[in-house]
TrEMBL record:
It comes from Oncorhynchus tshawytscha. It is found in: Cytoplasm, Cytosol; Mitochondrion; Nucleus. InterPro entries: ARM-like, ARM-type_fold, CBPC1/4, Cytosolic_carboxypeptidase, Pepdidase_M14_N, Peptidase_M14. Residues 361-405, 1077-1116 are annotated as: Disordered. Belongs to the peptidase M14 family. Residues 362-385, 1077-1095 have a biased composition (Acidic residues). This is Cytosolic carboxypeptidase 1.
Length: 1116
């Protein structure tokens, strides 16, 4: 039988008895009985040592009590006790918990008191000081108040004096340095130590290469590095010319440590340089000491040795910080184009933008937060001091704002004008049976914008088979490229061109016949649509991909596997520009700021163009023979939002290794770091029968560069930098014309063409009506679609069923750069207009109201996020202006009208694209899940809500391979209170109000795991959304409810989510894993938080979209 564990009780009782005797002796201060005290303490120590591992907590408590009995700190007892604490509580496997107990019992305070008491002896006991400092070096890091205690106790000065007196005593010097390193984690201590000359002491210890005392040198460098984290100490080091000394030491160790046995010493020197260069003076001193060249050369020599990667990474970080900050090579960071608004709100972004004095928005931010007066706070530089719940600060905590409004904000009389958009709710079909329920969007009048189509011809002379670009005077349509399809006049135009061509010999290239593959695409119809599209720059060209169309490739496009070290290589190539400036061409080859002649063609460089619908490229600069820096244009009436690009390249050489750098990206991270590739469209491939966008590019990476963002463009934040997205590629066809894009382009004219083609799919059984919801600021029409099934007859029952179908309201493309949203919408529209039984059932189940493009102006003009008002339209839903935000104002009015007549939609969904996460997922709104993520105390009555909001996403996760339920979130954030999802949920009362986010990259789960997403998958997602709606309808019917109750009963899912993963539903952090190589590119000791709109929340693509202060960019 197992014996009861009572063996320790007698011993413990005896220890307590003996401790009582010591306390009495201490209280009576009987110095004559000191020998008795030593005998008692010896017995206590013996008993403690024999009690075994299971009473460690009691042992520590006893030991602390003994330490407090100062009269008996005599003879060998102190050493025995210190040895015991070290052997049994610190230097044992898994001793971390024991050290924690030791600290909680006041152990560090006792040890510091011992240090102070021991220092009063003359001379101090070397053995005692050695043991005390050895213990403090191990225990100190576990005590968050260690630095404060040491300073207040006086032990800080004791250690410094001991250090100064024992510079040659390496045995005692080592633990003293280790303790100083811990002391220095407190900023006040670090400043105090610097004032007391500890920096100079460190430079007496460290030195050139030597095989002796390497452990001491390593600890000295670590201590020096900790001291130099203080800005005051960093300035002191600069003033005393220590930067050249550190560079010399690093060079010497690099030169002599040929077997790389002392990599930690070399890394320690770099750590000191890294901390010094956190201040502007340090960076200047580094440059003046030729540090860039030194670190570049040493790093280059380290590249072949993989184990030296930490040295290369730290060197790269230092060089990136010290790379002189430059302004973008632009006359102004404001957009090249400007649109006059009907009125400019005084406090709005446009007023702020254009009220700035000339040049103010472009000034390089020379401020340096590290040069500010140092704030001496008694805080340790430990990550645990940060509140790990900071990421949830944006969650809405006001329960009143988490409940739907009970009153409507607008009187019904104002909303009655929107009745004309809901004819289906009053239609009796008695006199409408032959009426065409479709209103064409195409205007018969000639557009103000004249179109210039580029023509293709073979160069047959000399055997060269290339493509030439020639511009016709408007209004020629499609010229030679349409000859095969158009015939007649177009063929004559092609013949005329051939006669004008020098040599007179040429063959007209044919437009690929894609009618069977692209039933909704018609090149001639596209040109007609372009005629009625109005752009601020008054574009007069059509891009080939938009004219030819896109046929999704049949092959799979895998997420690009990252080559190890590729980002480091790119960064080193950038650093070479500073070291070898004479190798840089710096030749401008394309510049929209010179609008009279943006293309600068010298016959030696690539030719660029972006002057077509949705195009975005502002400037191209040839840096090297095959390397080009590209600058994107800001959104119109804005000075930022650089992400979307779409441009043309020609004049390339076959097989040449071209590198393209987009140098003014703003996000702090991108899926380009996680396997996403750019898209390319080759005209030569298209005319060969393969008209398609393909993922392309190698050596793709995304990293912070040396171009400074002004605080005006960065929302008031100082010290922000732009980022570079770089990719390399070779071209396969001579004289090809290629297009590059951020994602699959989908223009406003494409939408109008698709809507026209969809009309051809209408059958007598389909009710489809297209209205003009409003006109945009730029004069473009915003279409509103109504799709449902025609009633089977004109009987009252059928008409009643028709009118009482629940409504589903869909919208898309409020952010122009999220083109994937339009492809998803295309899939939805094609399914709704299809002839399948499912489509027919869906039309019979619902009335669909669809705004397929909420921001036509932004799409047309190549914006990434804003409309012509210079504002993010998805932040205007609370109080939209009818003049500045007409599409949002009238769309919200439609929903308000429906709420007023008690016909609020069953489902509202706004299609978006997500730039920093994979898969397709949804964001919804839930009172309960939002409260669960906060510390709000609320009764169960207050948290009551129908859990049906989770049903649709759950259905999608079971049927759509690209959809991820794990990425969905139903938390309401303060920063999202003016978005469509939250406003429709709160003000209109739509429980199932969603944002559906589609990745720009690819999937990491399901059927498409490891694949980049394409238009086929996006359109499929749009169709599957429709099927999910049909299933939702069936599930909520009484007959089906019993068989599918598991989809509606999600309370258990919520409880499991709540208790197993508290932050699972609040997805703000980037889901990507870090790469093997990492580096912090910040110019300061702590990186800045990311305040771009995408980063602000799950809805808008927060990578961490809240960045931690020490955000690290991958270097691989």
């Amino acid at each position: 039988p197992r014996q009861p564990k009572t063996c320790f009780v007698p011993s413990n009782s005896r220890v307590l008895m003996l401790l009582g005797q010591l306390e009495r002796l201490n209280r009576e201060a009987m110095l004559a009985d000191a020998e008795i005290g030593r005998q008692i303490t010896a017995k206590i120590l013996h008993l403690i040592q024999t009690q075994g591992e299971k009473s460690t907590k009691h042992i520590l408590g006893y030991t602390m009590t003994i330490y407090l009995l100062e009269p008996f700190w005599k003879g060998q007892w102190e050493n025995n006790s210190l040895h015991y604490v070290n052997d049994r509580c610190v230097c044992v496997p898994g001793g971390g918990r024991r050290v924690g107990v030791f600290v909680s019992k006041g152990g560090t305070g006792i040890l510091l008191q011992l240090v102070l008491s021991g220092s009063k002896e003359s001379p101090p006991s070397e053995e005692l000081m050695l043991q005390l400092h050895s213990l403090l070096a191990k225990v100190g890091p576990k005590d968050r108040k260690f630095g404060v205690k040491a300073r207040l106790n006086g032990a800080l000065n004791v250690t410094v004096n001991l250090l100064k007196q024992n510079l040659q005593n390496h045995k005692l010097l080592l633990p003293c340095l280790q303790v100083l390193r811990v002391y220095s984690s407190n900023s006040v201590n670090a400043v105090s130590l610097g004032k007391n000359g500890v920096l100079e002491l460190m430079f007496k210890i460290i030195g050139p290469y030597s095989k002796k005392n390497t452990s001491l040198l390593k600890v000295s460098l670590d201590t020096l590095g900790a001291l130099l984290k203080s800005k005051t100490n960093a300035r002191r080091a600069v003033d005393r010319a220590h930067v050249p000394v550190l560079l010399y030491i690093y060079q010497d160790w690099h030169r002599n440590d040929t077997r790389h046995r002392h990599m930690l010493i070399r890394k320690g020197v770099l750590g000191c340089l890294k901390n010094i260069t956190n201040i502007k003076l340090g960076r200047k001193a580094f440059i003046d000491a030729d540090g860039m060249r030194i670190l570049y050369n040493t790093s280059t020599e380290c590249l072949p040795v993989r184990t030296l990667d930490p040295l290369i990474n730290t060197s790269s970080l230092i060089m990136r910080k010290c790379f002189p900050k430059n302004r973008l090579p632009l006359p102004t960071i404001k957009s090249v184009f400007h649109h006059q608004l009907p009125h400019v709100p005084a406090g709005g972004p446009v007023a702020q933008l254009y009220n700035q004095p000339l040049g103010v928005d472009d000034v390089v931010d020379e401020s340096d937060d590290n040069d500010d007066v140092e704030t001496e706070n008694d805080t340790e530089n430990e990550e645990e001091d940060k509140d790990h719940h900071a990421r949830n600060d944006d969650i809405e905590t006001d329960i009143n704002k988490l409940r739907p409004k009970e009153t409507h904000s607008r009187p019904f009389e104002e909303l009655k004008i929107y009745e004309r958009f809901f004819l289906e709710l009053s239609e009796d079909f008695q006199v409408m049976q032959d009426r065409h329920p479709f209103v064409s969007l195409v205007e018969s009048s000639t557009s103000k914008n004249l179109i210039n189509i580029v023509t293709f011809h073979f160069k047959t002379r000399g055997g060269g088979g290339g493509v030439n670009r020639h511009y016709r005077q408007p209004p020629l349509l499609a010229g030679g490229v349409a000859a095969q399809q158009g015939g007649g006049a177009e063929e004559t135009l092609a013949e005329e061109w051939a006669e004008e061509e020098e040599g007179g010999e040429g063959a007209v290239l044919e437009v690929p016949d894609t009618a069977l593959l692209l039933p909704l695409h018609d090149p001639d119809l596209y040109v007609e649509m372009v005629k009625s599209t109005r752009s601020v720059p008054q574009y007069s060209e059509v891009a080939y991909p938009d004219y030819f169309g896109h046929v999704a490739p049949t092959f799979r496009e895998h997420i690009l596997e990252r080559v190890y070290g590729v980002q480091r290589t790119k960064i080193f190539q950038d650093i070479e520009r500073l070291i070898h400036p004479n190798d840089i061409l710096d030749k401008v080859v394309y510049d929209l700021d010179i609008q009279s002649c943006p293309v600068i063609d010298d016959g030696e460089s690539l030719k660029f163009n972006s002057q077509f619908e949705s195009g975005n490229l502002r400037k191209a600069i040839q840096a090297r023979k095959f390397e080009y820096d590209l600058v994107l244009n800001s959104d119109i009436n804005s000075n930022h939002y650089h992400q979307w690009f779409y441009f043309e390249v020609s004049g390339m050489r076959v097989g040449a290794p071209y590198r393209f750098n987009i140098i003014n990206c703003e996000k702090s991270n991108s899926q380009f770091n996680y396997g996403m590739q750019v898209l390319m469209y080759s005209v030569q491939e298209a005319i060969s029968g393969r008209p398609r966008w393909v993922r392309t590019g190698t050596d793709i990476c995304y990293y912070k560069n040396h171009f400074s963002r002004s605080s005006i463009a960065a929302g008031g934040q100082k010290g922000k930098s732009y980022y570079t997205m770089t990719f390399s590629m070779t071209f396969n066809h001579k004289d090809d014309v290629c297009y590059f894009a951020y994602h699959y382009p989908y223009t406003y004219s494409t939408l109008k063409m698709h809507l026209q083609k969809l009309e051809a799919l209408r059958t007598p059984q389909i009710y489809m009506r297209q209205d003009i919801l409003c006109e945009t600021l730029g004069g473009n029409s915003c279409p509103l679609l109504t799709i449902t099934a025609m009633p089977e007859s004109t009987s009252n029952d059928q008409i009643c069923q028709f009118r009482n179908r629940p409504l589903v309201f869909l919208s898309s493309r409020v952010h122009p750069g999220e083109t994937n949203a339009s492809w998803v919408m295309k899939g939805t529209l094609e399914f709704l207009m299809g002839s399948s039984p499912l489509a027919h059932s869906l039309r019979e189940a619902y009335i669909f109201k669809i705004v397929p493009m909420l921001n036509p102006d932004g799409v047309v003009n190549g914006n990434h996020r804003c409309s012509l008002s210079g504002e993010d339209l998805n932040r205007q839903w609370q109080s939209p202006s009818p003049e500045l935000h007409p599409t949002i104002y009238h769309t919200k009015s439609l929903l308000q009208y429906l709420a007023a007549i008690q016909r609020a939609p069953l489902v509202f969904c706004d299609y978006h694209g997500h730039s920093r996460k994979k898969n397709v997922f949804m964001y919804g709104c839930s009172l309960k899940e939002t409260v669960w993520q906060t510390n709000i105390s609320a009764t169960s009555c207050e948290l009551h809500e129908d859990l049906g909001y989770r049903t649709l996403p759950k259905i999608l996760s079971q049927m759509a391979p690209a959809f991820s339920m794990a990425s969905c979130s139903f938390v309401v954030e303060r920063s999202k209170e003016a978005t469509a999802r939250v406003v429709v949920w709160r003000e209109i009362g739509v429980q199932r109000s969603y944002t559906m986010e589609s990745t720009l990259c690819g999937c990491d789960q399901g059927k498409y795991k490891g694949l980049q997403i394409g238009t086929r998958e996006l359109e499929e997602m749009g169709a599957q959304f429709c099927v999910a709606l049909l299933r939702l309808k069936r599930l909520t019917s009484p007959l089906e409810l019993r068989n599918h109750a598991h989809l509606l009963d999600v309370e258990s899912d919520l409880i499991e989510t709540r208790f197993t993963s508290p932050v699972l539903t609040y997805v703000l952090e980037d889901e990507e894993h870090s790469f093997m190589e990492e580096v912090d590119y910040s110019a300061e000791s702590g990186d800045e938080p990311d305040n771009d709109p995408d980063a602000a929340d799950p809805h808008d693509n927060r990578l961490s979209d809240s960045e931690s202060n020490n955000h690290r960019d991958s270097l691989t």
